[in-house]
Amino acid sequence: MKSQLSISESEWQVMKIIWGDPPKTLPEILESLKTTGWSKTTIQTYLARLVKKGALLTERRGKGYLYYPAISEKDCQL
Fold first, then answer.
1. In whole angstroms, what is the distance from residue 3 CA to residue 16 CA?
2. Is the pLDDT of residue 1 over 60?
3. Alpha carbons 64 and 40: distance in angstroms, whole number
4. CA angle 14-16-21, nearest 5°?
5. What's the rounded Cα separation, in Å, for the pair 63 and 36?
6. What pLDDT does residue 54 have?
7. Which H or E run contains 49?
């Protein structure tokens, strides 16, 4: 059985956006998280960490990427 993935509270917020209606583009993610006050760079850092941890998958689409959840919400823990 696969062990649960541990992600931070901030990463959890990013994942909730993507789990809600995948896939998501960076502009869609930025729009959804604009109330957090996080910069574009900060959100991109969270996305990169989530990809590295195996929580997100990316697919090149034009000049950007689509972000897909690689794991279900129940497979993550805070």
1. 20
2. no
3. 14
4. 110
5. 26
6. 92
7. helix 40-53
Give kind and range of the element (H or E) at residue 58.
Answer: strand 56-61
8 phi/psi in degrees, rounded to 5: -75, 170
pLDDT of residue 6: 80
DSSP 24-42: EEHHHHHHHTGGGT--HHH
pLDDT digits (tens, 9 = 90+) for 9-20: 999 999 999 999
Which helix H or strand E contains 13, and what residues bound it?
A: helix 9-20
Q: Which two tokens stand for residue 76?
A: 């993550």
Looking at this protein, which amino acid is placed at residue 15? M
What burial letters (b/e) apply to 33-43, b meaning 16+ CB within 10 Å? beeeebeeeeb
- 37 confidence band (pLDDT: 50, 70, 90): very high
The neighbouring-strand residues paired with 68 are 57
